[in-house]
From TrEMBL:
Protein name as it appears in the record: DUF4123 domain-containing protein
Pfam families xrefs: DUF4123 (PF13503)
DUF4123 domain segment(s): 22-136
Organism this protein belongs to: Pseudomonas kilonensis
Length: 284
């Protein structure tokens, strides 16, 4: 496929009478989002996180825009830099923007409390990987009202048609959540979920940390430590984050270090008990 595929796709979808749509990663494309907000009518955009339980993250969450011109300058600027992973394009029935946003809001939160996470549907890498692994008959429940999608899949542009666009309930066991992810995607997902956890549960402490150092850099270093120790379970990550957040500028106490022949679970349980003892949460 050539680099002109998205332009051809946009022209063809409009010729067929469909609404053109951009799913934008607002967090990393803030200037583009602001420019689109200024040039769009109120009925041409929606925040996906708005009116959901993560509405406090709406400013950093994905926005969906409909637009009228295949040659829109803001869209062209995005198409010229696909490796920035800004999101993807979709075509919809006329007036289908609210339905598409409703569709993804219903698929946004994955997992059970207290170990819920956000599904990064707006990441073109997530979309491309799901469509690569899903059987065609699973496309409708995944893509919902989208008639067709166009996205960068790492080395080239691709487009995929939905065989039965429409509104579908969330399956009990969504196949797209069983798609294997790359180590890089898993690491980025852990980072985003960890930051969401800190903003939701420890916002004041996280804000204080930001006054002293770069909070994202601190978070990445802390998660790298968790990876070295093979602490990847939600309760292990939450424990490390909350404990380290109490004194983020200080090194962890010596008893945190792994001992010879100690398994990750044994290491975690020992450190958890030691931390509780030194903090007076349990008797000696």
């Amino acid at each position: 496929m050539t680099r002109s595929l998205p332009h051809q796709w946009l022209i063809e979808q409009q010729r067929l009478g469909h609404t053109l749509c951009l799913v934008l990663d607002s967090e990393h494309e803030h200037p583009t989002r602001q420019a689109l907000l200024k040039s769009s009518r109120p009925d041409q955009y929606l925040s996906v996180y708005g009116q959901t339980q993560v509405a406090d993250l709406a400013d950093a969450g994905p926005f969906v825009f409909s637009f009228d011109r295949p040659g829109d300058e803001h869209i062209n600027e995005l198409l010229n830099r696909p490796d920035n992973h800004w999101g993807w394009l979709a075509s919809l029935p006329k007036g289908g923007l609210p339905t598409l946003v409703k569709h993804w809001r219903e698929r946004l939160i994955i997992g059970e409390r207290p170990h819920q996470a956000l599904y990064r549907f707006h990441d073109n890498r997530v979309l491309a990987r799901a469509l690569k692994h899903l059987p065609v008959e699973a496309y409708p429940a995944y893509l919902g009202p989208a008639i067709s999608v166009c996205y960068w899949q790492g080395t080239c542009w691709a487009s995929t048609y939905n065989p039965a666009p429409g509104e579908y309930p969330l399956p009990d066991s969504p196949l797209w959540l069983q798609v294997p992810v790359t180590p890089q995607q898993a690491k980025q997902t852990r980072f985003l979920n960890a930051r969401r956890f800190l903003l939701a549960e420890h916002v004041q402490a996280f804000a204080s940390l930001a006054e002293q150092q770069n909070p994202d850099a601190w978070l990445r270093v802390t998660l790298d430590q968790a990876e070295v120790w093979h602490w990847q379970a939600p309760e292990q990550l939450e424990f490390l984050l909350t404990q380290h957040l109490q004194a983020p500028a200080q090194a962890l106490a010596p008893y945190w270090q792994v001992r010879s022949a100690e398994s990750p679970d044994e290491h975690f349980e020992r450190v958890r008990l030691m931390a509780a003892f030194w903090q007076g949460d349990m008797p000696p």
